[in-house]
Amino acid sequence: MSVSLKLTPQEEISADIPIDLEKTRQPQYGRYLDELDPGQVFEHPRGYTFDTTNMLDFARTYMQANPLYLNAQYARAHGFADLLASPQMVFNVTLSLGVQNDSEKAIANLGYYQVQFIRAVYPGDTLRAFTKVLERRDRGPDKPGITRIRTVSVNQNDEVVLQYERKIMVAWRGDRLPTTPAPDVTVDFPGEDAPEVQLPLTDGHFAPGLTGPNTYFEDYNPGDIIVHANGRTITEEHMALTYLVGNSHPLHFDRIFSSGLSGKMSGEPIVYGGLVFAWLDGLASRDVSEHAVWELGFTEGYHTQPAFAGDTVGALSRILAVEDVPGVEGYGIVTMQLIGVKNISAAAALEKHGADLFIKEDTKRGLGKDKITDKIFEIERRLLIKRRPR
Amino acid sequence: MSVSLKLTPQEEISADIPIDLEKTRQPQYGRYLDELDPGQVFEHPRGYTFDTTNMLDFARTYMQANPLYLNAQYARAHGFADLLASPQMVFNVTLSLGVQNDSEKAIANLGYYQVQFIRAVYPGDTLRAFTKVLERRDRGPDKPGITRIRTVSVNQNDEVVLQYERKIMVAWRGDRLPTTPAPDVTVDFPGEDAPEVQLPLTDGHFAPGLTGPNTYFEDYNPGDIIVHANGRTITEEHMALTYLVGNSHPLHFDRIFSSGLSGKMSGEPIVYGGLVFAWLDGLASRDVSEHAVWELGFTEGYHTQPAFAGDTVGALSRILAVEDVPGVEGYGIVTMQLIGVKNISAAAALEKHGADLFIKEDTKRGLGKDKITDKIFEIERRLLIKRRPR
Amino acid sequence: MSVSLKLTPQEEISADIPIDLEKTRQPQYGRYLDELDPGQVFEHPRGYTFDTTNMLDFARTYMQANPLYLNAQYARAHGFADLLASPQMVFNVTLSLGVQNDSEKAIANLGYYQVQFIRAVYPGDTLRAFTKVLERRDRGPDKPGITRIRTVSVNQNDEVVLQYERKIMVAWRGDRLPTTPAPDVTVDFPGEDAPEVQLPLTDGHFAPGLTGPNTYFEDYNPGDIIVHANGRTITEEHMALTYLVGNSHPLHFDRIFSSGLSGKMSGEPIVYGGLVFAWLDGLASRDVSEHAVWELGFTEGYHTQPAFAGDTVGALSRILAVEDVPGVEGYGIVTMQLIGVKNISAAAALEKHGADLFIKEDTKRGLGKDKITDKIFEIERRLLIKRRPR
């Protein structure tokens, strides 16, 4: 069907339409705890098209050093169809696609779990996302509850790209305005229980001069602590960057909203945690993931303090395990912790806090230790890393 | 012709060339009132190439919720050839293409009228723009006058994409430096008097889960007032964003220029109004234009207060009219007002000012009312919106 | 080879891995003076893929007026294969590709010399870079020395795109942490001694209305001083922009690092000089390089003062020479000085400092003159510029 419309001069009509304040509505997005039933499945709005420059811009803004995300020639020489979207971009976009429905009313994002990267994202791909409510913890009618959700993104061929779980703290609706209902569609949840990653890796050892000599699988041993030299000062750029990945929570870009909150979150817009994580990952990348050919997953990820414009973040990694992959030559799996600090260099934070930096903050009280307020983030991650070419 | 040049070492020569201050020139751009003759036609410099990422970035930066501008798969499923440039981007670029010639010397942009969107802009398209001077209002030799101009953008096939009129306040040249003359070329003005929009819409109702359940044509009724929940804090990003759409007026990015002005505009660089409009439109989009398949036009658009870095803007819409389109099933036309406020939430502004928010500021004096200084923008717009699929 | 991996739930293991601070390492990047031997050749990490939008964004952010970098239709009509990357982008990227190896430990960038643009960069091209150490000046064991290096970028076909020299001030390592060794690969240095530029220029005079009437070869005469009207306020955007071109020196984006320095560089992050140069070039472009079809080269480029977020920069040009090109009709070569100032308009700086603005700062002392602290940059550049079409 082709629609044809003649455009005639547009008459001004507002003065002729009576103004009736009774006809006001205030659409609200996100869900309150009462609106998140275990088993419920939501399809998320919009979708997100990836393109070469937005992939390159993301990798560069967040300081990635792995050429797979920066250099299309290098990515192709490794067997990939084209430049790869960085795992951080895929994760940030997938999480953000779910915000308008899942968490725009959330009080806090409590943690990331079982993040699994299943398929490569290339220029031209479009992702959509779905969320299933896994669990709801009621802590009484006067208290916000905790919900655990699983979000999955799929590409334009309906193939699963990423899946992960997170816990969010959400209040009961009470007498607040109702939220916009989800579209009335039956949605099959595309999550996979035992996903299999297929990587089209080639044997070629492309351009050894393009990457460092000390970041191959053999260079990591359990217990190694790696202090990443540079930090990054986060500026007010974070407000625009939040919407650039598709996150619609006003806490991150609406100062009227932020300053109207009470308690710890009140004041300046808080940097969306996904961006903080992306910078920490990037700061670490030239030391630990330059030769990674796949990010297998993250778990137990916690933002232990918020970050604001003006804060400078730094990162440390600690190697937890190294494993051969049966039947796969040329690559091995490295599991590591990634720790973020702010307004102190990573080296100074290690000197000041020592081993305590690597202890999970929510276990500190049980160990009779104080929380470290310089610390902003902790997570465990697993990477498939190239062995040193012979 | 192929030109071949040998590059030899470049000798330093500046010390040998006498410095003669008599040979100084200071090229000036824009036009003074004396240089804008009714009937005159200008072709504008540069042109502007659209590409997938810059279209996506614009839509995301300005918070669009309509997947036609965010999701190439969705746009194609609706019959479009590819991802669509958002109307706000097309409008901002067209206006900006004209600034260096038309308004770089302007004191104020007084209003937008009869903005008509005529053709889709796709990745790879290049726009050029032309302006015809329609009218010049002389208010005496000591006072700036007002000129009404019509600007049109065309694509690489010389097809008209957008046309609009605006009024600008411009001073007489007096003893100021002369401006750079326009290129000495005869230009046919490509504006159309009764343009026809051809939309390649398909019947398919793609992915109802990707958009909200309450934003179809049937969901709007004359008189409805819709308060958009989120605001956006504008940061110093606006200076870079101004040039990114091609606007060269120093008022928006040159603090030396801005602080050298006298009166109301003196001080920090003012946010280019087109960007403010784009954010307001984006803030409103998930409530009113998520299912729009075409922006038909705007008129009577006024920036009633300037915005600066640090300001937080919010938006409200009021439905003015709904119309069937003869011969076109599946879509209807909605006319609405878009109102912008700053440094107050949209909900609080409505509570504070009530019906007066929707009354045009320049009619307030005649009605014995005060202007609303919280209010920054007002316009009427017409959209072709999808009916709810059955 | 295709690698297949089953993703199983990721167990949390960090608490089980003993924390041993003895196993800490702090990888350092860049080179100390002792690590830069004349004759040594380095291949640089990562590479950089160019794409249509990142090329357009660069040209627009830095305010280019030459449509070759803004308008793909115009570039093709001139005989080029597609939109051209602006010379400033190619220069900034090439320099930045070398930073992690060459200058991340540098104290100061002392100057640019013999910058030669040899081949066009188009969307889809990937650049890699190489550096050869040319010279090392030892100024005693307690003092930083000066090294002169030559950096070359090549495209995916190993064709040289750009080469240039710079001098950097670097300290001896002393008891500082060792830096990461370069990859152990034998690298042939791709620099060319007498490079030849091949330009596929066509005779067509495309769209004379798209460019100004006064910026053809004939419009420039030796001695002409051109004051560029607009300035640009640099915001904290510069931190993100630094990494966007690939520059990893923490001086430009890590406030903890910057404020930990002693002396003149201590305090806020300093704007990466390449970005300052790009803005100055852009501010000048509509007056001097709008009709340039090739940037032949730069030399004697000095950042005479640093710039910080909040500074407003302005530019002046002075024509030094005009030359016919034997055998090439339609184009001529113009050599000019480009001068940058900050926190004063270009016009006011000329009024205040007169001829002294165009005298190289490092010759001022010999001439019994004071340095101009308003001045931030000086360079000589050569351009191939179109003659006025008849």
Low-confidence stretches of chain A: none
Give the topology string of chain A: H per helix, E per strand: EEEEHHHHEEEEEEEHHHEEEHE
Q: What distance separates the N and C termini of chain A?
A: 61 Å
Largest β-sheet summary of chain A? 12 strands, antiparallel
Q: With helices defined by DSSP (H or I, 4 residues minimum), what is the helix count of chain A?
A: 8
Assembly level = homotrimer
Structural class of chain A: alpha+beta
Strand content of chain A: 25-35%
Helix content percent band of chain A: 10-25%
Largest interface: A-C, 88 and 67 residues
How confident is the prediction overall: mean pLDDT of chain A?
95
**What value does the Rg of chain A take, in angstroms?**
23 Å
The global form of chain A is: globular
Number of strands of chain A: 15
How would you describe this protein?
The structure is a homotrimer. Helix content of chain A is about 20%, strand content about 30%. Chain A has helices spanning about 50-60, 70-75, 85-95, 100-105, 235-245, 255-260, 275-290, 345-355; strands at about 5, 25, 40-45, 50, 110-115, 125-135, 145-155, 160-170, 195-200, 225, 230-235, 290-305, 310-325, 330-340, 375-385. In chain A, strands 3, 4, 5, 6, 7, 8, 10, 11, 12, 13, 14 and 15 form a 12-stranded antiparallel beta sheet that branches. In chain A, a hairpin with a 5-residue loop joins strand 7 (about 145-155) and strand 8. The longest helix of chain A has 16 residues, at about 275-290. The radius of gyration of chain A is 23 Å and the shape is globular. The termini of chain A are far apart. The model of chain A has no long low-confidence stretch (mean pLDDT about 95). The interface between B and C is large, with 66 and 88 residues. Strand 9 of chain A pairs antiparallel with strand 1 (about 5) of chain C.
